[in-house]
Amino acid sequence: MSMFKHAAEILEARVNTFLNRADDPAQTLDLSYEKMITTLQDTKRHLADVITERISLENQMAAAKRDSDKAEADARMALQAQREDLARAALTEKQTAQQKIVALQQAHDSIATQAEKLTAYETKLQDRIEQFRTQKEVMKTQMTAAAAEVGVSESLSGLGTGLADAGDAMRRAQDKTAQMQSKAEAMEGMTEAGILSDPLDARDSTEKELDKLRSTTGVDADLARLKAEIAAPK
Residues 87-107: pLDDT tens digits? Predict the structure, then answer.
């Protein structure tokens, strides 16, 4: 493989990876889940603020109630001491405290209603997020399995790069082996014909032919002898 072809394959792989990530349903599902979690966290913060405000109003109402009770006790004590002027002043303070309690109670009722709505919304949102998370994981598993199945099918059908490259390599190896075998046979024939010489064999072509003839004659003689021995009566 040339250097330029290798660089082109690397560039193509990176471009494909970028495109796959740009249109990756699994990644889109994860981002949607993260946004839902962010919304739930914002809801929890708002709910915490509302509950904090409700508790603050309850504390103010309790303080106003104590002021009202104290003012009434002071008015009672002033009347017992024949000080109607002081009793009137204490009862004025009581009325102020009572009016404050009414205003605080109205604000508290409104905040309590808002807290109940936020609590119900938070519970419903948590349920939906859990359902979405389960569906998301199931969908991602199905997508992974489908992608693997497509990859295997492409490889088996030759559309992929795995088995296709392996098949090309196998064919090249077979062609190379056939060429080497043909070359070996050609060189052996040329050596036997005397066109090529063995550097370790000092015989000339005449001596080689004579040695070959002697070998053939010897084989023929041994074969005739064995046939005669077998045919001879015991």
Answer: 899 889 999 999 999 999 999
